[in-house]
Design brief:
Structural class: alpha+beta
CATH architecture of the largest domain: Sandwich
Distance between the termini: 39 Å
CATH class of the largest domain: Mainly Beta
Shape: globular
Number of domains: 2
CATH topology of the largest domain: Jelly Rolls
Helix content: 25-40%
């Protein structure tokens, strides 16, 4: 068990040696970088780190759970996780994870909450360079300048709408878990109320108060994020659209394009320009 009572992260062999994320927590540098590859379906169970971290996958999709919500992180995106935030990571497809661990004292100007951010071409190359640097890199040399550029880039990254907020109320939690498990379920709030033991009016109020979204918008976000995971796994657009409850593949494609800037068939085949919100 880890110090917070959670199962520690399993280690995976990279380049002939075993890497433990705890090795990067005490290194006397403001930034430490780790490269680690995972197979499809791997779960890094609930844990936390003393440092803040930027979790980036150069390939594959990560679904990251925290007590406050769920984030979907496709390639060319990353999740910023502040220090000491409990989280669990589920891999979809083979995932090449590249993580930056940031000393809390060096996080001035960086987000205080979790956020998915776009990874620019420059930041991507800097991350890939950082994982090759020695843990005790020369702060006054070229490696130190790489670390400085990384901090400059991190402070300019826009947050993206790839977040599904989690409610606190146990009735909403049961409802939301059921929707995530079966996104095509189109029951009304009245029907859900009978299932979880609350009126539609109460559920509607709780959704607004605890997630900042209406139930309809929350469910739409859940479906879109589920679609990202399915598309990343190689499912066909038509199959994803029908399985997730859209009226037709064209309706799904139109909604996807409106929110992400490109049709679903192109989302994982090159640079994605869209940042629209649900």
């Amino acid at each position: 068990m880890s110090q917070n009572g959670q199962t520690p992260i399993p280690t995976a062999p990279i380049a002939g040696r075993s890497i433990d994320p705890d090795d990067f927590q005490a290194v006397p540098r403001p930034l430490a970088a780790m490269a680690k590859d995972y197979p499809d379906g791997w779960v890094n169970h609930w844990h936390r780190h003393r440092r803040a971290q930027l979790v980036y996958a150069s390939s594959g999709v990560m679904t990251i759970h925290t007590p406050h919500g769920i984030w979907i992180v496709p390639p060319d995106r990353a999740l910023w996780i502040p220090a000491a935030v409990d989280h669990e990571i589920v891999m979809t497809g083979p995932v090449a994870m590249r993580t930056l661990y940031i000393e809390p004292a060096a996080t001035s100007g960086l987000p205080q909450i979790c956020a998915v951010v776009a990874v620019s071409g420059l930041l991507r190359e800097l991350i890939l360079r950082a994982v090759e640097m020695p843990m005790h890199y020369d702060e006054t040399g070229a490696d130190g300048r790489v670390a400085g550029l990384i901090f400059d880039e991190l402070r300019t990254l826009p947050a993206l709408p790839l977040h599904l907020p989690s409610p606190r109320d146990n009735r909403l939690q049961r409802l939301c878990a059921a929707v995530r498990a079966h996104p095509a379920d189109d029951r009304t709030l009245d029907a859900w109320g009978r299932s979880v033991g609350a009126s539609a009016r109460t559920l509607a109020r709780l959704f607004r108060d605890e997630t900042g979204l209406t139930f309809g918008r929350w469910r739409a976000q859940a479906r879109l994020l589920a679609a990202l995971g399915r598309l990343a796994a190689g499912d066909k657009v038509t199959t994803v659209a029908l399985d997730l409850g859209y009226d037709s593949p064209s309706a799904f494609t139109a909604l996807f394009r409106r929110h992400f800037g490109v049709p679903p068939s192109r989302y994982f085949s090159g640079r994605r320009p869209g940042t629209g919100a649900v």
